[in-house]
Amino acid sequence: MTIKKIKELIDDRIQPTAWEIRRLRKKSFQRYLIFKDQESLRVVDSEKFLVTLYKEYPRGEGTVLGESTVTVQEGDDLRERIEAAWEMAALVANPVFKLPEKGLVYSPVNSLYGELKKQPLFYLDKIRDDLIKTPLPGVKLSSAEIFLDFKEEQILNSNGLEQEREEGELLLEFVLLAEEGAGFGGESWGWRQGRFYEHLKIREAVRRYANFAREAQTARLPRGGTFPVVFSEEALDTLFNFFIAQASGGARFQGWSRMEIGAPVIRDLRGEALTLTSNPTVPGLLKTRSFDTQGLPVQKVEVIRENVFNQRTNNKRYADYLGEPATGDFANVEVAPGLKSTQDLLSTGPCFHLLRFSTFEPNPITGAFSGEIRTGYFLENGRAEPIKGGSVSGVISEAFQEAYFSREVTQRSSYLGPEAVRLEQVEIAGE
Asked: Beta 139-157 vs 18-34: how paired, if at all?
């Protein structure tokens, strides 16, 4: 099956108002470990095509756009799948928008680590060795999965746009067990993800997660009440998701965005002002890319500048719906650092330092958040007491009224910004 064959069938049988074809191929090198022994080694190669058909037709006094997307793979009845998608398109009535056109300008980005592609098995061995040869006193490796994925994407549409890209991605997941007292919860699940091997810093990460496993044996429920909380590590991956969702064109068009261009994002600000950017150009991050899922160039956008909502992120659909510039979907999260050191943020106690949660995802509409604590510390009088269990909760718009950002910066899978964020008034449920 090829894009050419799909295009010929669309032109001969359907002749829609517009069409879009995305070819997605992935080759995945996978190693699975049980303790330190290899359980299996696999190479998985897959390819699929996402075909979207658009049908413009009159409704009432205006015109609407029907659309339907179908996935086709080798062995499928292509004609049957395409004709079924065309029938489904007539059941949809969205506002009309135009697909991106050819001739757009794209910024070059680095989303593939060349040596990784040349020597995938070498890097599978290298990552395994980092994992099993790092000394972990009192802790043993229970299991691990290592993935090296190489992705190719090609997109064409009826406006003559044609773009291609190639991406590489590394993923390591592992479980560590404290050798004594594992029955009392001395377990730690860890992961590292990124595009470049050097950015993963596997040995450093494994030692850190081993310490979490050891501390989990003696960790206790947190003290309940309202406290300052310093978020770092995995918590940073989702802490800013409310702002990202609120700043999207989709939120504005659907009527649930609370943010207005030129207005403060946080009312009654008492702490440091947030500056948040969508950045598609940071080397090694997972959302570093030159175009989005419809082939539109992804731009760097300063979404929030010192607590003022500066610009929305819009894909082509919502840009047309709102009559605003098309920027592409939100890319990597970049947050401006603050004035204080991480140590300064942790030294004023009592406070909690929370690193990992079972789940932590602020509601995109209300900003309400809660999360069961996996790994954290209660800091008081110069002591750090390990805690787990209990939960943290609050509302982003209230919690960020007094927020402080560390001047030290860290890089995670799709985040570049302060390594610690302190929120002064957060609810802790515990003892």
From this structure: antiparallel
Question: How does the average pLDDT of the chain come out, rounded?
Answer: 94
Give alpha helix (H) positions in 18-119. 78-89, 114-118
What are the structural domains of the chain? 3-216 (3.30.2290.10), 219-431 (no CATH)
**What b-and-e string marks burial along 320-345, b requiring 16 or more CB atoms within 10 Å of the CB?**
bbeebebbbbbbbbbbbbbebebeeb
Closest Cα partner for 140 from 88, 210, 62, 190? 210
Give the span between the Cα atoms of 393 and 361, in whole angstroms: 11
Q: Residue 418's closest CA among 298, 271, 311?
A: 271
* Structural tokens at position 14: 């359907």
pTM here is 0.92
Span 179-208, pLDDT tens digits: 775 445 688 999 999 999 998 999 999 999
Q: Which two tokens stand for residue 267?
A: 């009312």
CB 101 within 8 A of CB 32: no
- pLDDT tens per residue across span 21-79: 999 999 999 999 999 999 999 999 999 999 999 999 999 889 999 999 999 999 899 99
Gap between the Cα atoms of 122 and 118, Å rounded: 9
Q: For 159-224, give the secondary structure using H, E and C.
A: CCCEEEEEEEEEEEEEEEEECCCHHHCCEEEEEEEECCHHHHCHHHHHHHHHHHHHHHCCCECCCC
Residue type, 41: L
Q: Please state the three-class secondary structure of 322-351 as a single string.
A: HCCCCCCCCCEEEECCCCECHHHHHHCCCE
- The span from the first CA to the last CA of the chain, in angstroms, equals 60
Q: Are 426 and 392 in contact (CB under 8 A)?
A: yes
Instruction: Provide the phi-psi class of 50: left if phi over 0, else alpha when psi is between -120 and 50, else beta.
Output: beta
Does an H or E element contain 394, and which? strand 391-395
Q: How many helices and strands in the chain, by DSSP H and E?
A: 11, 19
